[in-house]
Amino acid sequence: MRPASHRPAPDHFLRRLLAIGFVAAALIVLWQALASLQAWLPWQDAAPRTVTPRGDLAADEKATIELFEKSRGSVVYISTAQLVQDVWTRNVFAVPRGTGSGFVWDDAGHVVTNYHVIAGASQATVKLADGRDYKAVLVGASPSHDIAVLRIAVAFRRPPPVPIGTSGDLRIGQKVFAIGNPFGLDWTLTTGIISALDRSLPAEDGGATIDHLIQTDAAINPGNSGGPLLDSAGRLIGINTAIYSPSGASAGIGFAVPVDTVMRVVPELIRTGRYVRPAVGIGADEQVNRQLAAQTGMAGVYVLEVEPGSSAAQAGLKAWRIGPDGLVPGDVIVEVEGRKVDSLSDLLARMDDFRVGDTVTLRLRRDNETREARVTLQPGI
Predict the structure, then answer these.
(1) Can 73-151 and 175-272 be said to share one CATH topology?
(2) CATH superfamily of 73-151
(3) How many other C-beta atoms can be found within 10 angstroms of the C-beta atom of residue 350?
(4) If 165 and its partner were Cys, which of 106, 235, 240, 335 is the partner (CB 3.0–4.6 Å)?
């Protein structure tokens, strides 16, 4: 007889299967533990990673680095203080007021910055890129343009003046570079593009509106004020002056006074200490202007007064007046050199395009008729 085949009992088979599963699970846990421990152990064969060669910098990176290195020495850091007298001891001491930026204008030691950087201060200190500090003297200021000129006495190793460009030919989308001291972080470079041109910005204290501003998305923060806005050739095209931001920090909307305005204002400040805006010799009022425009339906600058002997008087301009039978129409200025003016602020902005002594063409409306008059600009009041 053949012996029957031996088969293990079912319970014995299950026990062997469970044992194998337990051993496998234990091996997996042990492997994971060793892998985790390996990350923490200082292995004898540990070595630094191999550095991957970078290669040359991109052409635009090289250009930006070169621009910053060439321009940095022309940018300064400005700190201001207010002199305060102690009511008990009568001692006078300086209380820090604020900081800002500026740039070297010429070899005579003139430094240009924003007016609001030094407004209300009793003294200012200018720090050069090489770390030297100098007490500054206020030469002149034009609050309506937010421009001020300081002067420092540098006997040797004078910092280079910033190269001057133009702003009349700027184009939206053009690259720009801002160098300044945002939040006191000295000599910081930010980049962006021109976002818009010919913007107007009302002054925070209710003062005159600043016109012709360049809008940029280059990051401009508190402390950047007064620093240069440069084009890709490293030339000055504007002075960083303000930001639009609900939080007080950069929100991608910054403004700069264009260099063409700077070129008209700064030489006058250096020469006389103040800027005199060109004028045509008329009197006007913004509130009355709005009322007359609403009443007549015609936008422009309503001439309310013609100064005797002025260029406007010589050109035959006529003022609006109140007669026995009511309002007697006079002239309304609607264009200056072909550029439209809808308000008094528009006219003042157009005047900043010219200098005293320039002759300009005014387009006038009177009694539904249009005519032109040539006037020579005179010093404003």
Answers:
(1) yes
(2) Trypsin-like serine proteases (2.40.10.10)
(3) 22
(4) 235
Hey, what CATH topology would domain 278-379 get? Answer: Pdz3 Domain (2.30.42)
Delimit the domains of the chain by residue range: 73-151, 175-272, 278-379
Q: What is the 3-state secondary structure (H, E, C) of the chain?
A: CCCCCCCCCHHHHHHHHHHHHHHHHHHHHHHHHHHHHHCCCCCCCCCCCCCCCCCCCCHHHHHHHHHHHHHHHHEEEEEEEEEEECCCCCCEEEEEEEEEEEEECCCCCEEEECHHHHCCCCEEEEECCCCCEEEEEEEEEEHHHCEEEEECCCCCCCCCCCCECCCCCCCCCCEEEEEECHHHCCCEEEEEEEEEEEEEECCCCCCCCEEEEEEECCCCCCCCCCCEEECCCCCEEEEEEEECCCCCCCCCCEEEEEHHHHHHHHHHHHHHCCCCCEECCEECCHHHHHHHHHHHCCCCEECCEECCCCHHHHCCCCCCEEECCEEECCCEEEEECCEECCCHHHHHHHHCCCCCCCEEEEEEEECCEEEEEEEECEECC
Nearest-CA neighbor of 134 among 162, 149, 154?
A: 154
Burial of 14: CB neighbours in 10 Å, binned 0-12, 13-18, 19+? exposed
Nearest alpha-carbon partner for 197 in 158, 170, 235: 170
Query: 175-272, what's its fold?
Result: Thrombin, subunit H (2.40.10)
Q: 185-232, pLDDT tens digit by residue? A: 788 999 999 999 988 877 655 556 787 899 999 988 888 889 999 999
- pLDDT 10s digits, 313-368: 999 999 988 888 778 888 999 999 999 998 888 888 888 888 888 999 999 998 88
Q: Residue type for 342, please?
A: D
Active site residues: 116, 146, 225
CB 351 within 8 A of CB 360: no
